[in-house]
Amino acid sequence: MNIEIGDILLMKKPHPCGSKEMLVKRSGMDFRLVCKGCGHEIMIPRSKAEKNVKKVIKPENNNQ
To answer: Diameter of the chain by CA atoms?
Structure first.
């Protein structure tokens, strides 16, 4: 799965605040994700994160 910094992950299960969207701040063996609803930052292993991702939303680059 190709996940990069700045991508928004739509998760299968919501964060306790109710938001299903997470912003990727760091990628590697672990991901640092920020909840788009409440701003809470979490570190999660790549294997667990990839299992719970429903959709990857790439940012639009309008630098043409």
So the answer is: 39
Contact 12, 26 (CB under 8 A): no
Q: How far apart are CA 10 and CA 19, in angstroms?
A: 9
Query: Are the CB atoms for 35 and 46 separated by under 8 Å?
Result: no
Task: Decide if 17 contacts 37 (C-beta within 8 A).
Answer: yes
- pTM strictly above 0.90: no
Q: What is the pLDDT of residues 15-64, one digit of tens each?
A: 999 999 999 999 999 999 999 999 999 999 999 999 999 999 998 874 54
CA distance 23 to 41: 9
